Every structure is written in C-alpha cells, then in structure tokens.
Batch of 2 targets.
Target 1
Amino acid sequence: MSTAYKYVLGQQTYHFKNLTDLMAKATPARSGDRLAGVMANSAVERSVAQMALADLPLKTFLDEALVPYEIDEVTRLIIDEHDAEAFSLISHLTVGDFRNWLLSDAVTPEVLQKIRAGITPEMAAAVSKIMRNQDLIMVAHKCHVTTGFRSTIGLPGRMSTRLQPNHPTDDLNGIAASIFDGLLYGNGDAVIGINPATDNVAQATRLMKLMDEVIQSYQIPTQSCVLTHVTNTMEAIEKGAPVDLVFQSIGGTEATNSSFGFNLNILEEAQQAALSLNRGTVGQNVMYFETGQGSSLSANAHHGVDQQTCETRAYAVARKFSPLLVNTVVGFIGPEYLFDGKEITRAGLEDHFCGKLLGLPMGCDVCYTNHAEADQNDMDNLLTLLGVAGCSFVMGIPGSDDIMLNYQTTSFHDALYVRRVLGLDPAPEFQKWLKDMEVFTDTDKYLLSSEVPSKFSGSLKGLLQ
Amino acid sequence: MSKVNFSNNQAFNGDGITENPWKVLQQFTQARIGLGRAGVSIPTKELLEFQLSHAQAKDAVHQPLDIDKLQQDLEQLESTLVSKTIEIVQSQASDRFIYLQRPDLGRRLSKESKNYMEAHCGSNQGLVCDLAIAVVDGLSSKAIETNTLPFLQALLDLMSNETQQDWTLAPITIVKQGRVAIGDEIGELFNAKAVLVLVGERPGLSSPDSLGLYLTWNPHVGLTDAFRNCISNIRPKGLNYKEAAKRALFLLQESQRLKLSGVNLKDRSDEKVIEHSSDTGNFLVNTLDK
C-alpha cells in the first residue's frame, strides 16, 4: 500500500513518501494544500513531482488507494465499480501518456465516452495536475455529457444557467421578484434553485410549492430545487411536496460526507424516492450535487490527500447517482483554500475538466467571497474560459450579488455576455420557450425584448398602478 | 439584419440604456433586480455602485472589533440570568492576515486564554451550567457591534419568561479572531451542557452586518459542523431579533430534551405556522388567474 517514490534529477534524488505525497506535491500551488501542510516545499520540488507523476502507470491507482479501502466507502465505490473493460483501452498508459492521448486527434468525444467508466477520480486528478489551463479547456471541450429532466443539459454549443433567486428571509414576493428578473433576462434553464434562509422541512416545502406554481403557470421547461439537506427533501417527498430535484453537498471521503450528515445509502434512497414521483419529461436525472475544493480539509476528513484529489473523488459519489447537474462552487469556501483569482481560476478549470472526463454534467459557480483576493474581473475571465471549455451551466443571480449567502457569483447579464461572445444557446426546450414567450426578440442574436413580454405584463399591472 | 431598429424601441431614450419597467419589484427585495442594461451589460451607474459596495465589504473584513465598547454594551444587558462579568479571550490567530489563511488557528484558544479560562472559569471548580454564550468577531466586527446587544436582550427576556426551566448561564465570553468551532472549547471549559456562538458572518455586498448563531450540544474540541444548528442573517434588514430569539430558544429546548444538536435536530419552530398557511401567494402567480 505505502510505496515510496523517487525521482533523480541531475545529481539530486527527490523522495516522495507515498502516492498521496506525490499527488499532493505535484499539485499547482494553492492555499488549502499549504494549510493542510501537504504542498510541495519549493517550485522545483513541485516540478519534479509532476515529472515523477507523469512516469506513473495509470494502473497504479487501481492498486494503491489514497484513502484506505477498509475505512472509506468512497474508495470502495471507486474500486468496486471500476469498469475494467472500459479501462483496457488506456490501461497501458502512464499519466504522462494519458495527457498526450487525451489531447490527440484520434480521441474524439465518442472515444472519451467509451472509456469514462474505466477512469477513476485519482487518474483524472493525476493527469489534470500535469495539464496546463489550455489543456484542461481543450479536453473538457471534447467531453460531451448530456442529461435531462424537463430541459436537456449539456448539448454541444449550449450553456445553461441556474436561476438563484435567494432571499435573506425567504420572502415569497422577494423570491418571485428575482425569478421574474431572471426569466426576463433569459436565465433559468438548468434549474430554479433556492438556498433557503430557514432550513427546515416546512419552509423547503413552501418554497417547492412556490416554484412549482410558477413553473406550471408559465409552462417553463425547467426544474426546481430547494437546496436543503437530503433528509429534509426525503421527508418533504413523503409529505407529498412537489420535488423535482434532490440536492446534497457532497465530498470525496466517507468522513467528509458523515460530517455533512449522509452516506451513500441515504443518497440511494433519496434518488429512488425522487424517481418514484416521475416528474421529468425529457429525462429522469433527479439529483443535484454541489462540491468544492477544500470541503474535506474543512471537515478534517482529508486523510492527508490534497484538496483537488479529494474534490475529484466526490465526483465518484456524484457519478453513482446519475445527476442532472453537478456544480463546483469554486470560490465560495474562502481564501484559506483558494487564495486569489489565479487559484480560483485554476481550480474551476480543473474541476470542470475532471468532472466532464468522468462523465458528469459539470457546471461551475464562478464566484468569490469578500475576504478573498478576487473581484469581478477574475470572474469575467473564468466565466469566459469555462464558456470556451463547454461548461454545462453557470449561476445567474441579480447583479452578481447573492443577498442571502453573502458572496458574488455570475449575474443574469453575465450569462448573456457569454452567449453573445461565444454563441452559446440555452437548452433547446428553454430556447423555444424564450421565443414563444417573447423574452427574446431574436434568439440567434440573443436580443432581449425592450418591452415586458405580454405574458408577463399581467403580473406587473397591479403593482404599476 | 444587423440594423438595430431604433424607432420602434420605446425604451431607448438616447443614452444607450434600456430600463426595466419591473424596477418597481425592488420594493420586495434588496437583490439587484431591474438594473436595466446597456446592450446586455450592466449600465455604468449600477456598475460603479456595485464596486463601491465591494470596497465597503472588503473593508468590513479588516475592521477590528471594538472590544471595550462591546464589553460596555454587554454589561448593560438587563437580565438576572447573566452576571456582569464579561470574559475576553483570544484565538491562536494573532492577527487578521493569519486569521484569514489559518481557520484552524481561529478555532482554538490561545495558550494564555486557555490557561486563564482553566484557572477562572471552570470545569475544575466542579460547576455545571446549561449554556455558555460566546460572542465571536468572525468575519464582520460590524455584525457583532450592531446586533449582539439587542439580540441577546431578546433571547434573555424569552428565557426568563420560560417557566418550565431555570437556566444557569456561564459568563458571556468575547472572542477575538475567532471561528465558530472555538465555542466548543469555551463550552467545554465552562462545563456547559450547550454552547451558543454569536459570530460575524462573512460580509455580503448588501449586508456587511449579518450575525450568525450556532448551537452545539455537549460542546467539546473536535466536533464537526454536523453537530451544530445554525440560524443565519440576523440583522436589522434580515431576520429580526425577536424571531431569531424565538428560534434559538426552540433549538435550545429541543437540544436539552433530545440531548443532541446538529443534523438530527430539525428546526421546527415555525412549522405549525407554515403548515397551516398553505399560502405560497406572490405577485408572479396570483395575478395570472385574474
């Protein structure tokens, strides 16, 4: 289990205690790994670790677990469900070869789809560590992952948005006002998803009903989600609430997930409960997961593994339950894990790449907190890069300001910016709805109507008098 | 096709901005809705206002807590439940720069503070109390300065009116450069059955003054967040003090009854109210039926 690694560079031999150590030291610098004390001690040591990692056969990751099999159900999930047949196409490669192979002309979206189940999270994390940002973008762009519920997410040339109408007291008119604003800016095809300020079953149910009524009334081809604990959603389902998607924050180790108050069995039960409602029309992907580098360390549950590898292991959890959406909330956790705009950007691209490579409908909450060294310019950069990479969805909130969660993410306006400069369409069902409802006067040019569309003007009338 | 039709565009008033007629909805929320647009981009005025808010929030993170003022405030609490003694302690994070990068240090008491508390506050004297209250600067000193006194007054009033139980409280503790989990160590040192942490939440653009509450049953060093219950966004324009105190008392009583806190303790304080009002009414759906 604990093989030591070494690499000879000129006169000097570099030693790495084990695979965990090698992976951590090969990781591009970030504050969370520094906090955990697992980071490379110098730039040269990092560079050498990357060379040593590149020489490592991919097979190694099937023999050496970074978190012991016996004590961790995520490791057991990864090993037990590994698809040897899918892996056979790449089983002869080293990590370094794998990068070349992924970038090569022969590797098409179809080929990538074929080998997905043979790639473990650790293999994806390892190769990402020796890839530049443009490599992460280039290969992610070739990974096509399509999911569906009432709208289809992830088709090439499209990008969806989660309309996030949070309100600090869950005021119904306040939430409805943000939904209205978002819809009229053409947002909301991935999901209308609320982070409740009051986190209990009754409140979650009330918000689910609100969104259900809006979706039904305006016949919007989208789905709703209240981002409450999985056990709350299960209780809401039992009580007959209109649940479209089940939400849960997930991490890459069993101990992380225990700290979040769930295990794989609970997710399985929740997925079955949501499927039994049979509310999807174009698909039955009923789970919505959120992740973010640093969550395992934050829960003191990282087992010495670097935060990017922990994050990628969370994708094994996600993959098991065929989610509609997986969202890496990249800058939310704060500067102790990702210090500045540069680290947030790198992490966003890594997470998107690793998630897509493993076959997940990966979106990104392009965001930052007010105690991080980042600003709107950093977010503009990452949003643009992710748009180029084929990111499945991003957030949309009024004016970038989440007044409930106290952080900044991408705005309704930002989504239209990236559509215009990169020609990215919303989900096809939603695109048609935007046209029918006259939100867009020209869907090809993403031209918004300058008037309130007639179907919406009724709801404003009473207020305008 | 590339021609923009100016003549039919009534909202185009010559300054490049398309206003949003639903600006009127701003009465319902502080969210930045109805901003209008220049093309599809944020207009200049709103852009610059946003940048000012960001600058203010950044400054709020770095503003130190005025300990003397807070201590004087807390001494004015009118309640027989708490003593006039206020303890002041410090985490292992010696300054803000370290605090921001090392949350682990913010979760533990400095050696001096720990020694002090062991000598003066505690468990070694064989005392047991129902509740310890820790007031922690966190990421917004402004949140603590604005909300601590009125919230605690509301909570203590409710607790005093509570006839079923006589509460014994540890002296209120003020913590400099602290994180939520430092409450576990403080509760443990007071030999308290539960700890309630008041902490300055990360400042938002529209809310640099938001207070968070965390309750932990049987506090001791090493607990994770799964063992805590949270009430968030307590501030004048957010969750009001009375309501927050009501919910806090509910959680306190439930954790006493069930002898636990965290994910297995659900906040049902307003479930009856919510369940009996099937009302999900709002302007967006109601008017459609007319």
Target 2
Amino acid sequence: MLEVQNLSMRFGGLLAVDGVSLDVKEREIVSIIGPNGAGKTTVFNCMSGFYKPSGGKILFEGQEVQGKPDYKISRLGMVRTFQHVRLFNNMTVVENLLVAQHRHLNTNLIAGLLKTPDYRERERKSLDRAAYWLERVGLMDLANREAGNLAYGQQRRLEIARCMVTEPKLLMLDEPAAGLNPAETKDLNQLIVSLKEDYCVSVVLIEHDMSLVMDISDRINVINQGRPLASGTPEEIRQNKDVIKAYLGEA
Amino acid sequence: MAANTLKHALFCAVVTLVIAYPILGLNLEAEGINVTLAGADTSTVISVIAAAIVVFLFQLFRENILSALKSIPSPLPKTQKEPMAENKRARIESWVLTGIVILALFWPFFVSRGSVDLATLVLIYIMLALGLNVVVGLAGLLDLGYVAFYAVGAYTFALLSQYAGVSFWVALPIGACLAALFGFTLGFPVLRLRGDYLAIVTLGFGEIIRILLNNWTALTGGPNGVGGIPDPTLFGMEFGRRVKEEGNVSFHETFGIAYSGEHKVIFLYLIALVLAVFTALVIRRFMRMPVGRSWEALREDEIAARSLGLSRTAVKLSAFTIGAFFAGFAGTVFASKQGFISPESFVFLESAIILAIVVLGGMGSQIGVVLAAIAVTILPELAREFSEYRMLIFGAAMVLMMIWRPQGLMPVRRIHIPLRKQE
C-alpha cells in the first residue's frame, strides 16, 4: 500500500534522513522507533508532503507522491497527527471534525447559500460521521466545547477522531501517547488496534512508549541517526543486538 | 516599592507637562508677516499644571484606584443562573434582530435629514467592517489596505457613470465584482505571507491604488476627483426636482406629492440598509458553511488545516475575494451618497478606522462589529462640540477599550451545532 524507497532528506550540510525504506501493507501497524533526533519525524514530514524529500521515492497505492503538496497527499487518504497536538483551539469540537471533512462537503458557495438538497444531505452526513466518531472516542458530551479547553488526553483523542472522519486509508500517528498516563495509553492502544481491525486503516506509528509499540505493531523499523538500523517483527527487534546497542549504548 | 511608585508617578507627571505645555501653552500669533510665539494665558497654564497633578496622583495611587474600581459590582451581574438553552437563545436573538431591522426601516421617516445622512454613513461602515471581518476576524489575515477595494467600488461607479452613463443599479454588481477581482489579484502575491509581512504588502497595495487614482489624471481626474455621480433611481423614478435623464420620471410627480430633498436621503438610507442586512446575512451564512470553517481553521492552525486537505490557496483567495466584494458594495453606495469622490476619501486612515471597528467589535463577531461601527462613526460626531479634541477623545476611548475589554465589545460566540446520537 505504502512504499518508501531509499528516502533521504538534506538540510544544508545535514543529512537528516539517509536511505530509509519502509513498506506498509493493508491493515498493518508499522512502527518507527529510534532515539531522539534520529529523524523519525522528518520521515513523517516527507511522507505527508511537508518537506520535499531530497531523494528517494514514496509510492502510495502505486502512485508517486513525493514532492506533492501536503493537502493533495492528505486528500489521497494519507492523514497524519502531530507530535504536539494541533487542534483548531478556538473552534468547537464538532467544528474541528467538520473542517476535516471539507472534501466530503459540498463547498460550492451558491449551493451553500441556497441550502440545496445536495448540500443539506452532505452536511447531514458529515454531522453524523462526526457524531459517530465523537461517540467512539468518548467526547460526545463535549461536542460544543471549544477544543482548546479540553484536557490533554481528550485533545489527543480528538486529533485522532479528526483524522478518522476524513476516512483515510493510512493514518500516520506521531507520538500519540506522549503526555498520556498509563490508563490513557491503554485506551489508546485499544483504539489504534480497533482502527486497524474495524476500519481497515493501516497505521504508521512513531512512539517512544515501548510497551505500546511492542504490543500493537505488526512490524517495527528502527532508525538511528537518519539511517535505517533494523526492521522486523517486535520479537526480532527485541533480540536485535544493534538495536539494543543504539538504545542502551555500547556495553 | 513606594519609592518606585513615587518615581514612576513623578516621571509621568513631568512627561505630561513636557507634552502638554508646548502644545496647549504656546501659541503662534501672526502680526502682519511676522509670526511670534506668545505665551499662554494663566487659565491654560493652570489647567496644564492641574492635569499634571491629576496624572501624578493617579499614578501614585493607581493600585488603590484600580482595586476600588474592580470592587464596584459590574452592572450586569454574572449570577449563577443556568445559561439559556441554545435553541431558545438563538430564537430570541433572531427575533430581536428582526425587530431592530424593522425599526430601522421606519426610523428615517421620523428624524432629521442630518441623522439619516449620518445613519447612511454608519451603514456603509457596517458593510465595510463586516467585509473586513471576513479577512481579519475569520481568516486571520491582517489587511491594512482594505480601503483599496472600497475605492475600486466607488470609482467603478463614478467612472462608469461619467463615461458610459451607467446607472446605480447596474454599477452596483459591477463595482462589487471588480473589487472582488482586485481582491483575488492581491491574494496571489501574498499567499505565502503571514502576519507582519502580509500587513505591509496589503498596506502597500492600498497606497498603490490611491496614488494611481491620484495620478492617472486623464481617466480619474486626479486629485480633482469625479463629480456628478447620479443618485440611485427607483424603477426609473428620479429623486431630483427635475428629471435629468431622458425617459425617466420624477418620484414626487409620479406619486403626486410635494418635492422634498429628504426623499432622496431616505431612499439612499434604505438602499444602504438593505445592502448592509444582505451583507450581514450572506456572511453569517458563510460562517456556517464549509468555506467559513476553513477560514477559521486557517487562522487557528495553518499546518493542521493543510494536513487535513485544505488548500491554502483556495482558502486565502476566497477570503480576500469575498471581503473585497462587500467593500465594492460599500464603495458604490458611498459614491452615490456623496455625488463626488476623490482619492482623499480613501487614505490609509480609512483602512485603520475600519480595522479599528473590527478589533473593537470583537474579531469574528458580527454583532460586535455592527455595534462598533455604530460607535466609531457616531462618537466623533457626538464629540463635535469639543471640536479639536474630538479625535483625542476618540483615541482615548479606544485605548481604554483595549485595556478593559481586549476581546472586543461582543466577543464571538461559537455556533452551537446539535448532533444526533448514533446507535
């Protein structure tokens, strides 16, 4: 479904990502792990179109997407979350979800002014979709609160819901468990698995919480200093000498 | 602490003296061809010194005074009452607003010509501020050259009528669309800009339009402006004493009533009212539509908006275009009301005032913006008694407003969207 081949990203003299390859099949959770500053988020930024990669190819469903503008990539069905929650803070929770469904709505100005049947129909559908996902992540009662007033854990869940209402095929989560307490992390764990099982979404995950990564990943890619270090099933990674060395330092 | 306050208070008093004495206390007097500097009379000197003492005392006891002010209970006590149910509140609100509009329809028949004229100006500013509210309040794009689109609307009508004899009703959509086109054109070069940089480019754009109008003498008449702009007609009926255009009839003769100059003023007021209500309703609808939400999303977080598939180009251009469209409306009405326009009506100060209206009203809030437009237009008129001090009073009111209510007169209230429970 998603294939990243030999991706590299150079910032001036710094080669932040060098020859990283990645491959995600349908209904699969693939994690990217690595020490701080390893280039994980840079890989994400290249994949989601925020950066134009200096080299390599990114194929999404057989189509080359590297260097395409971010909003086009997102419309293809690759949607991401951010390391630091990026909600529309002064808008309500529902409005956050409605903005995300922009491409599903009838955005014709005249149709909207006249409230044509097609416009109403699509508006109603996206409201239902928003309601469904709010129910799913347990934020239904807060639907008309401003997103900035939610607790941190709720904001995290809202961000995932906001991605899901776009009906993506591939979800890219950048440290979704950062700042969550153990109970919330467990909920998140179940949510991500259910996204894969029930909604047929592939997930690419960057995460530092090893228990979460080992629990839910089908495969793991390890990056160190911009270069791929290892890849394989959680079990293989756990045994891998290089990975242990990179994480724990030379023994 | 006390020493610090004393020092601060003294400093403020000295600054007051230094600024106030030369401005108020020294007069230039012309004696023949010589200009002499005359000292002030005693009363002025005394009042300057009194002002300095007031400043000194206020700064000295500032803490006490401010805390005393806070302890005064606010006129609208925020009791622990349950907030009204959303749908009920919305219904009451729409009834009240409809009532106000109906009152506004009949109001001009009972008041003086001068007040109707002023009210027309207020309505023009309401249109402008509602339009700028889209760009600044909703989309978060600081536009300091908004008056350019107002000028485009006004000059479109003025020039079309001068060269092609086009009437108000034909010029109205043309002016608005041409202004929108200018908004669209300005949108392109500033797509990548944000904040301060955007403000400077739009400022430049506003000046370019004004200077162009000022210097393209062959077409626009330059600083002399364009005069003889026709008044709007009502189904071919003119409001003048005599019919100017072939084929038209005059209003007072058709209805067999005595001629009165007031008819025209009231008619213009009603046109402005209808257009202002139209502007408010259309923008209100936009705010509840995908396009309005995407403007706000762009203001809140551009990166997140893009990651969700919103195209920055489309969102920014739509905000600029729609904002400019309504400025074009206002411009056409303005040209018709004045009968004469010159580049002097479209200076930077106008942009600043419209922006001040939006900020004072509460960014993004329509009711707030309307209230602020009324206040900002009428206040200087009320303060006319104080002649040269009126701008001072106006400025002081703005400063106080920003200190005590930085969120604006009526901060924006989020739209409540009811959801159906999903099974």
